[in-house]
Amino acid sequence: MSSRESSSPSRAGVVRVTGLNVHPIKSCRAVPMDQVTVDPLGIAGDRRFMLVDGRGRFVSQRRCPKLATVTAKLEEEEEVEEDGRRRISRSLLTASAPGMDRDLRVVPRLEGPRTEVSVWESRVGAIDQGEEAAQWFSELLGVGSTYNRLVACAEASGGFDRRVDNLPASLSKKLPKMPIGFADVGPISLLSEESLGDLNRRLGERLGSGGRVAAGSGVPINRFRMNVIVSGCLRPYEEDGWLTIKIGTTPFLVYADAEVCTWP
Question: What is the pLDDT of residues 250-262, one digit of tens each?
Fold first, then answer.
């Protein structure tokens, strides 16, 4: 899926993808992408890791606002063996944040012993990412490592089975429950620039600025933590009425509104 090549027809004109984002660690900052890959759990690499407390409950910005400052990335690192001949590529999870004297750099553990964690009402299997990651986040958040553990979806070892449970009745009888990672509502989320523009217009009216919000003072689109940003809708919130869309050659079912939590 590429932001430069993807579009869908509207009633008049074309709706285009103007932004693509992944959130490697749930509740941390988005990483803008030029293109992404879609896999059975949504966008590859999106919300496959999250922080949990000592009871296995996911930790979000509502409880730890500092998570909003963390930039996490999944990168490919080339490793050279001692003989200097063989090169091995491996995934590397990195995280950085203002005020931290070092970045976190760990090789993701995608297989191994599983621990049970919770995402809202779902209890699923996850893989603990070890002491180095726990110590880094505990230092950032100022609490003991026992209470902050970084975990990954146990999808590779077959221990992760979380399904979408909010399909409309008209669809739930026809479709199997779709798999989902650590995201809240669905595998992929979408928002139009027109909807954000209308929100900022209404905020301007409420603030007494004649329906206009000064440049740079409106709500930025990254506050909504969406994967796909589109532009070209004929009216705000047009995307709420879509049933199916196609981005590039990939078809998608639009089945639920994505409610956004209020952050501190």
Answer: 899 887 777 776 6
